[in-house]
## 1
Amino acid sequence: MKFNARAHSNFALVKYWGKRPGASPDLNLPAVGSVSLTVAALATETTVEFADGLIRDEVELLDETGTPVDNLAAIERVVAHLDRVRAMASETRNARVRSQNDFPMGAGLASSASAFAALTLAAARSAGLNLDRSAASRLARRGSGSAARSLFGGFVEMQCGVQPDGSDASAMRLADPKHWDLNVVIAITDASAKAVGSTQGMIDSEQSAFFGAWVEKHDDDVKAMKQAIQTKDFDRLADITEHSCLKMHATMFTNKPGLIYWNPATLEAIHAVRALRAKGTPVCFTVDAGPQVKAICPAEHADSVANALGALPGVERVIKSTIGYDALVAAA
Ligand code: DP6
């Protein structure tokens, strides 16, 4: 049968950056846990059908304009994930996959998170697997670590786990989207695909002299963030979010050679967010493996934050988003 799934992207407030030392790359185990917000405005929709008569997997990836994306590495990554599903379901047939993002891919907007969450749900159902959310999250993690979080809406925690087989490395919901009416304002400063993807970027960062300190202090940030979410303490959430983001980028800057995803407009937007906060607007920033700045604020401040960021030189466009809901799957 053919199944269609839709998953939202997510942005980490406490970042995942680094792989568990010595673990199999296929298990894709994170070195640290993470806490994220699911982003309603960015989504991937994927249809999968395992069918007789296909001599190989037929994978069609479409960008937000519906144009096919010519990206062999991305297609190979999809096929590797289909292999995992086939192995779990004892499925021998090849699959037809059609996947469309409604936002730029590979530009630091967590397209692999929504893409592998949607692919996991659609492929698993199409292969006859009935996975619960936690099992689907573990499978999605093997496609992309951040995808484990995109199975869930709202505020989400990813646990790095300790088991060698990754059976305890999955995500879970911390709070429903309605728990706290926060918005994300995304300032796009360059929508083109980045030269170094996050998988490679984090592996390189493990060579940084700062990487050990990043891992060592990480649990404190996760614990504090969970409390900030529970008590809806925006100042605390803002402080930890910016701290985790800047620490992650510090491990990138201090690779050899240093990895710098930021451009001048990224820095302009960071300063603009800080200036707004200094003048009393509750808002903070985070930046992932790309040059876009994501500002997080209570919903009632989203318009003024979007106006301020949209007016900056170098900001190409601004996307405003509410908090997203769970990924969904249905027969197509
Ligand atoms: C900066 O999930 O893309 O967005 O597991 O290698 O696919 P892989 O990495 P990926 O890394 C996400 C890194 C980040 C931070 C985060 O989302 O936590």
## 2
Amino acid sequence: VKHLVEIGSLKRADIEALLLAAKTLEDYPQRARERLAGKLVLTMFFEPSTRTRLSFESAALRLGARVLGFSDPASTSTNKGESLEDTVRMAMSYADLLIIRHPEAGSAQRAAAVSKVPVVNAGDGSNEHPSQTLLDLFAMYKHRGSLDGVRVALVGDLAHGRTAHSLVRALTLFTDVELTLVTPPTLELPEKYMQYALDSGVKVHSCIDVQDALPKSDFVYMTRIQKERFKSADFVLGDAYRLDAKKLASASPSLRILHPLPRIDEIAEDVDATPFAAYFEQAAGGVPIRQAILNALLVPMLVG
Ligand code: NCD
């Protein structure tokens, strides 16, 4: 059984195949119809979500699959103390694929270890969020054509941001990539991901203020403080990690701002109307990307 637990399980060719499949499904939505007819997809969300759950559900429904699930763990037996493994052992007999979001790092791997049907990690604590990364790459690929030579600034909470972790790992598969890290001193990218980047030849820079990263970047990947994942819940993000239209005044016309969303205040609303804002379009790519993922896991011969 194939799972999508961490981005590191994919090779460059797998990622490229998924991006191409997503582009085809976006351009020819009628090709999605009935492809997964008769399949059942189960969404198990132990943590809040808007985009990830709804875009997975939309993707599944548009492929002709049916969807069941929960988004409020308080209403499940987890609340009575049931282990994740036991919940999965039962859930796998109810559906053909499980999409799981859970607050503990490593939970998706634990689920995959006991599941006889594909498991998709929709975010496990501060660890990884591989489907988000595929949609981040999709946005970059559509804007720029190639991921080789891409220059990405990663801004904000890179310590706890699982989307940043998976993105760094994915970018190590491409050539001549440059990363510029812009983080508060206590929220730096964990050593493990820094090592993946360096070992694969990614050039890593850092900047004190996001403004200084703009001329060195094709994409600025903004993130919010993951306040639910660490003690200092009242951490205040400094201006150096925030963007507004004024900071972007002299940016290159081809620069694009990405954000996994939800945004809090790290991107001022006056950026939305500028040509740099690509985050809502990025989020819209979530449906075709997730269609491509479901398709690849449930109709294996289409993976190639
Ligand atoms: C992200 C997540 O859940 O990690 N959201 C998402 O899925 N688009 C980012 C975040 O919550 O900050």
